[in-house]
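seq as requested:
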Amino acid sequence: MQLFDAIPPRLFSPLSSQKRDIYSAALFTLGELFDNQLVISRDEVESALQYALSDVLESADFSDEEGGEEARQLSGKVQLVLRRLKETGWIEYESSKDSFVENLSLPFHTVAIVKTLKDLCVERKSEYNRNVYTVYAALKESRNNPDYRLSALNEAYEKAESFMTSLKVLFNNIKGFYQRIGQLDDVNSLLKDHFDFYVSEVSKKVIEPLRTIDSVPRFKNRIIDMLDELERDEDIFSSLVQKTVVTRESPDEEAAEADIRYKIHQTVSIFSTVEATIEEIYAKNTAYIQSSIERMRYLMASDKGAKGNIDAILKRASMDESFAARLPQELGLVRTMLLDQSSLFDRINRRSRDEGRREAVRRYSVDGQLEEGFFDDIRKQFGAKRIDDFILSRMDGDELEGADIALASIDDFMLFILATVRSSEDDCPFSCAFAPGEDRRGRMVLPQCTFRRR
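struct tokens:
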């Protein structure tokens, strides 16, 4: 079956129109009604839409749509929205058996598509290790309750597929953080993006638990053994085939047998390779952290002299009008002009200029050794050894409080920040544990943290 054999051909036209925000909000409201009520009357639908969309509908102009000239009141606009959704196949109406009341009916494709669209708008945390335990618990319980073996197999297959899909999405989403590294051109923004989002929301909550929480290595072999048992034991396998046919999940025994074997083999394959996938994710995470450190080193090693400061001031003034307006007063800038006896009568001599002779743009190539030497100098200035020495030389025992580290220069400040980032690397000789609060020292703001020797 083709896609548009299963859904109406004009289904997506409201979502591609100028009022797509109104139609999408209306669909989300209808989806919430569907989740909370079994039977929804037309009056309840109109009341809910008037309440939820009153702000956007009051200012909306439907004169460009058929019948929109008459829809000036809120109730008329709601009815116009519902009519458009019905014409394009999003909603249907059915009459109640014992009255003339019309009730809303959402087709299957509407429920599925609205749920998918809502999931895209709401940030949801994928379940990782919980999926593994759910598969183990379902298969183990089915040993004591043979009637649930087919349900346990289906649950194991679906959860395994969902688990692997979540890991693949996580692996590919790290690429987006690589792209943001190049787009951020100041250290503060890079530190905020790295610590406030990536480290706290992705690395600590998602990636590290995949390795440290032992759901996969603990349950993997047991899951594979229980799945193999379903296929090896002829009585168990035969009962699964018979139940699949009885429940009409498959048309005949041959198709049922092929379906069951596929689900068993696919689930076993996923759990056999999942640890390698997790290692790939961890390697990509480590590469991202190293790239963040390299970018920080590059930004910190940029020009900090008078010329660099002036460039930074002028760059911000070009983007922030209020900042540019304060510059003369804050810096004491004065405009100087010369006035003499001919100033009032000196006219500008205007001269026309011809285009001149055009010249081809010259292309220059940078020597590879020179370029590599430039980056080597940057790495040496704040290299891993210097960062490690900065922390270890100040550590009397096995711990060092960040508040006890004296910062005598801007280089010490940079080494402190880079040390918190480097602590996430595998070859780092120390770890860093963060605590709530901030450590303010003049104009410098540092995180509350403790360094521990590994």
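The first strand starts at residue 40 and ends at 41.
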